[in-house]
Amino acid sequence: MDRRAFLATLGAATTAGTLLKGAAAPAEAASGRITLLHTNDTHSHIEPFGPGNGALSGKGGIARRATLVKRLRAEAGASLLLDAGDTFQGTPFFNRYKGRLDYRLMRMVGYDATTLGNHDFDNGVEMLVEAMESMERLQHRNPPFAFLNCNFDFKGAPSLEKRMRPFMVRDFPGIRVGVTAVGVAFAGLVAPKNHEGIGWRDPYESLNPVVKHLRETEKVDLVVVLSHLGYQMLDSDFDDLRLPAHVPGVDAVIGGHSHTFLDTPTRLPQALGETLVFQVGFGGVNLGRMDFAVHRGEVRAATGASMAVEG
Ligand SMILES: [Zn+2]
Q: Residue 11 falls within a domain, yes or no?
């Protein structure tokens, strides 16, 4: 690499939030397709649900999820594997390994990005960072696994701040994808000592400049939001169903928090087209899939379905 190319790379890498951009040039072909595979609220369910869990019995398990993901990614070509948070809490695996096992397994399954749910703070910021660190030792794949959020103020928690990105941009043949994320307010959900140094801001207000930046500066064709706000939250001003009306330009919301089982994405109109809002229950019993085809920055086709993770 010559000096000029090196400096250009450095310039790209030091722009906040774009660290994860691959070395590839922006997509040049006019059309492209992408498959988004996703989970939410997996809550340390590493093994399948045992008998006596009603409709969930025998479903889930991260090994089976890995097999399904591998097959779908091989078929799909361009794909991202994403998660909407609440990876922690729910089984003895969390009590024993404090999230280290969950993140390490996510890395091994090939996740591209996740965000932070309220339960990911259950052991405080230090333990969260420790779990992230333990997963970072498995860095053998480029680009790295990203932790995304644009509405928390991490300034008072520098060890966490340096591991978080407001967004990421990834290039695939004929399609450039931007992913960002928002989290639920701490009040009543996270003990103050467990989110020490981290502030919460209005998720819609936080998303708007990021989505604008992704569209106008990064020139992405598709904007994806990982949301831990919940699908429909009547006791809050913020949820996934109301997000599209407040944040135009989002093509897909991958939701979590409310553990809502949807068979297909909910389609909502927004100022620049349509937003697909999706969420696939909890505990890793399902894997969500959304497929987008774009032509010159415009979504031409969008479909989605929930798939059971079972033997
Ligand atoms: Zn949850």
A: no
pTM value is 0.90
Residue 30 lies in a domain: no
Residues with a beta carbon under 5 angstroms from ion ligand 1: 41, 86
**pLDDT tens per residue across span 191-233:** 999 999 999 999 999 999 999 999 999 999 999 999 999 999 9
- Residue 276 CA, ligand 1 centroid: distance in Å: 21
Question: CA angle, corner 170, sides to 165 and 174, nearest 5?
Answer: 160
- Count the domains in the chain: 1
What's the whole-number mean pLDDT along residues 256-282? 97
Residue 32 CA to residue 24 CA, distance in Å, equals 15
For position 60, which CATH number holds?
3.60.21.10
- Calculate how far, in angstroms, residue 65's C-alpha sits from the geometric centre of ligand 1: 18
Distance of CA 256 from the midpoint of ligand 1 (Å):
7
Instruction: For residue 247, tell me if it sits in a domain.
Output: yes
Does residue 94 fall inside a structural domain? yes
Phi, psi for 273 (deg, rounded to 5): 145, -115
Q: What is the pLDDT of residues 106-161, one digit of tens each?
A: 999 999 999 999 999 999 999 999 999 998 887 666 667 899 999 999 999 999 99
Compute CA distances 144 → 55, 111, 252, 280, 305, whole Å. Answer: 35, 9, 22, 25, 27
Contact yes or no for 8/21 (Cβ under 8 A):
no
